Amino acid sequence: MAKKKLAILTGGGDCPGLNPAIRGVVMKASRLGYECLGIQEGWKGMISGCAKPLALEDVEEIVRLGGTILGTSRTNPYKKEGGVRSVLETFKKLDLHALVAMGGEDTLGVAGKLYKEQGLNVVGVPKTMDNDLSATDYTFGFDSAVTIAVDAAERLIDTGRSHRRAMVLEVMGRHAGWVSLFTGIAAGADYICIPERPVDVKDMSAKVKAAHARKKVALVVCSEAVNMGSAGEEKLDEFGHMILKERGVGERIAKIVEKETSIETRHAVIGHIQRGGAPTLFDRILGTRVGLKAAELVDAGQFGKMVALRGNDVLGVSLEEATSKLKTVPPEWFEIMDTLTGAQAGAGAAR
Ligand code: F6P
Question: Alpha helices of the chain — where are they, by DSSP H?
Answer without folding.
Answer: 18-31, 43-48, 56-59, 83-93, 105-118, 142-163, 178-187, 201-215, 249-261, 281-299, 319-324, 332-340
